[in-house]
């Protein structure tokens, strides 16, 4: 008898510092009549629950809400909650086709993301769609001086700015410039009192290697939500620990030398590389090579062929913690110069 086949469940990780508005956003998500069956795993350390009446004493408790969404309060291991949801879904007790995980305000989203790469069964049943990070516009200047808040921004596929109405245009622009310097590849959107178009939260495809993938330094504009169009980021007086590094080459890359460069980079700095993505032009190959990773976990694949009117160049975006930018640039240029 053949094994049953499952369509992977898209997973969204919701991150953000204390008080940024994660729970407010989740309440809106769970109370809206959107016709979607969304499960939410709420961590036990959240300041206020989505609904205090849902929180029981069991390690994992699952409750189906009126609009068909599912709330799961976690008081122990994340993997236990993930398997519990699968068991109840497979047995027909609950129904959902998307999952959102709320991280605590002081949590690093990396271990949550790695869960979906390490465990084979979870990797088959769930697919990581994206990491969303909420940023409190009013308190960000202080919070972003903390390394964990910078890391949350660095891991993000999309940045959601809350409390925009509490800051003036000058301070908002300064915040956006700083966010862009930390994470150049994440579009910035504004959340108004926990409300935002669901299209900005779901189907982000931040971990997909496909034809839609591209580490654009300019976020794609969408009419569904406010879009912040930024000038090139300027350096601030105080350097952030987390920052973006962009490597470019118009010269076709030798795949063996590229492999040596990447292996050396990951061996020495893998634990400091929060997120990295690239579209590469490989010598003698008509197709684009795309790759991305989180820390030392990464994937790559051959993509579509370069279009006739498309500039054939290699672009790599590295987001890391205290990376030696000058040294990495030099080693990259040495690799390119030997071609």
From TrEMBL:
Catalytic reaction list: GTP + H2O = GDP + phosphate + H(+)
Keywords: Chaperone, Hydrolase, Nucleotide-binding
GO molecular function term, any single one: nucleotide binding
SMART domains for the chain: CobW_C
GO cellular component: cytoplasm
InterPro entries documented for this protein: CobW-likC_sf, CobW-like_C, CobW/HypB/UreG_nucleotide-bd, P-loop_NTPase, Zinc-reg_GTPase_activator
Domain CobW C-terminal intervals: 242-336
Protein family according to the UniProt entry: Belongs to the SIMIBI class G3E GTPase family. ZNG1 subfamily.
Task of the protein: Zinc chaperone that directly transfers zinc cofactor to target proteins, thereby activating them. Zinc is transferred from the CXCC motif in the GTPase domain to the zinc binding site in target proteins in a process requiring GTP hydrolysis.
Name listed for the protein in its UniProt record: G3E family GTPase
Lineage of the species this protein comes from: Bacteria, Pseudomonadati, Pseudomonadota, Gammaproteobacteria, Pseudomonadales
């Amino acid at each position: 008898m053949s094994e049953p086949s499952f369509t992977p469940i898209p997973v969204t990780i919701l991150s953000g510092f204390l008080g940024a508005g994660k729970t407010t956003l989740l309440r809106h998500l769970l109370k809206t009549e959107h016709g979607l069956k969304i499960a939410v795993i709420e961590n036990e350390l959240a300041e206020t629950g989505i609904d205090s009446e849902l929180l029981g004493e069991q390690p994992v408790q699952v409750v189906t809400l009126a609009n068909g969404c599912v709330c799961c309060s976690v008081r122990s291991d994340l993997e236990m909650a993930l398997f519990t949801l699968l068991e109840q879904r497979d047995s027909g007790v609950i129904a959902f086709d998307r999952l959102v995980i709320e991280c605590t305000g002081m949590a690093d989203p990396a271990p949550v993301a790695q869960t979906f790469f390490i465990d084979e069964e979870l990797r088959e049943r769930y697919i990581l769609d994206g990491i969303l990070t909420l940023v409190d516009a009013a308190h960000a200047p202080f919070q972003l001086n903390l390394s964990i808040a910078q890391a949350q921004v660095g891991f993000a596929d999309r940045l959601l700015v809350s409390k925009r109405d509490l800051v003036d245009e000058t301070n908002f622009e300064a915040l956006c410039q700083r966010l862009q310097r930390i994470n150049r590849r994440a579009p910035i959107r504004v959340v108004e009192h926990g409300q935002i178009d669901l299209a900005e939260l779901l189907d982000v495809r931040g971990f997909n290697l496909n034809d839609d993938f591209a580490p654009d330094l300019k976020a794609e504009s969408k009419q569904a939500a406010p879009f912040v169009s930024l000038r090139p980021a300027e350096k601030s007086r105080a350097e952030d620990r987390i920052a973006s590094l962009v490597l470019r080459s118009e010269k076709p890359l030798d795949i063996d030398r590229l492999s040596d460069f990447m292996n050396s980079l990951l061996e020495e700095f893998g634990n400091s590389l929060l997120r990295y993505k690239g579209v590469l032009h490989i010598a003698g190959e008509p197709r684009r090579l795309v790759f991305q990773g989180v820390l030392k976990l990464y994937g790559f694949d051959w993509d579509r062929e370069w279009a006739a009117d498309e500039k054939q160049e290699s672009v790599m975006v590295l987001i890391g913690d205290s990376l030696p930018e000058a040294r990495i640039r030099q080693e990259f240029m040495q690799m390119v110069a030997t071609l």
